[in-house]
Give the backbone structure.
Amino acid sequence: MSTRRDFLGRLSRLSLVAAGLPAMAPWLRPRWLADPFTVGVASGDPMPDGVVLWTRLAPDVAAGGGMPPANVEVRWEVAEDEGMRRIVRQGRATASPDFTHAVHVEVDGLRPARWYWYRFSSGGVESRVGRTRTAPEATRALDRMRFAFVSCQHYEQGYYAAYRHLAEEDLDFVAHLGDYIYESTVPGRARQHGSPPPRTLAEYRARYALYKTDADLQRAHAAFPWIGTWDDHEVENNYAGATPLTPRDGFLLQRAAAYRAFYEHQPLRRSSIPRGPDMLIYRALSYGTMARLHVLDGRQYRSDQACGDGSQAVPCGDWASPERTMLGARQERWLERGLGASRTRWNVLAQQTTMAPIVGNPGPPPKHPMDPWSGYPAARERLTGFIAARRVPNVVVLTGDIHASFASQIRTGYADDSAPVVATEFVGTSMSSGGNGSDQWGGAEALLSANPWVRYHSNRRGYVRCEVTAETWRSDYRLLPYVDRPDAPIATHATWVARSGHPGPEPG
Ligand code: FE
Ligand code: CA
């Protein structure tokens, strides 16, 4: 294919000078020889008056996007109808090679709790039409809120059939709890990355582009606004702050590249533009008086795992040290302020790793995984102690990471049965990671006796659909029988609820 070379040939400095433009002004009328909108469109972080719109120009994904090193103008439109006739906002953005020709538009001036449709165009070529929805005003009482949460979409381990089903749901938004990409290759593949684990910016960009070519993922992005955070695999398995899994020099340079590529490929606000190896991703969003979502970052600021990265009998090493942190001191204070000041019915933590312990090896002695909150007991007890002391009502913890479904009690401690239940945890399974799975996670009997705070588990792939009213939080575990073929049907395997004023999951 000579697409890229032909494209580059059309962009000579002469043509820009001839058009009377300074060299770095956006190129207004590119002539596309291939569709530049190959990685889809997205919207995110809905507010009552606006939303972030996203796309990336990438006419040749396999060639690093196939764009010349020049700014290109992209037009965007927001309409009240799917046919894009009643345009309410429009404008121009610059797709810059500094951000691999990704575009982030922070649209404002919209009305609350409404559907909108949006589209990009460049050089006369239009993107697909995406749909998005603004949040209700913070003071508005709602009858219900509906959303789904997802995580862990290893491209090689399965197809995204669940995203195809998710796109057909009736939802206000989608929350993604991390592992949007995977750096590593696995055996038993349904499809292939076709490249080694990324370390450089170009390599991370290429990995995102590959994932984003998936039609079902594109469909789910085009159907709803997303609210996303990351976990470890956006950089490297089990990394902790500045510490990689295997110690080596230069890890922060790799983290900087990984964070930048994450920002470039997600519908995030300017406040998340990374500065070197640092990127602000924790934030709060309100959904009327129904819920406030605290979206957490359990990776960037955490202490290293206590006694290696695997599972350990505890106590071990500095496992219990109060110096150790999951969120970092600053994010902890921010979260406490937010939970303390919240006036919403439900207080949601959208976050990465399991908060109630999941002891997978009951022993004796039982072994606790060191990467999730069970490896950071002092940090967990600071948070649950705060919720108990301040009587923060109706805290619901949403979790990804573990590639299995659970419904668990969040207690102020797990040493014996006496600690009070202060919150409800719904753990969502993976989109594809782990492959087809099985009906039960671990040995079911041993699992439940080693983890009496766990009420439900399943080892199938899918997502969790939540329907929230003032009285009841309902979580439907929507699961697939397989992911090694793209045509899997979906069904609600179980429903667990949290009742307002009664922390802990109950059968729905
Ligand atoms: Fe994962
Ligand atoms: Ca470690």
Notes: The chain has two domains: 21-132, 137-181+227-234+277-472+492-507.
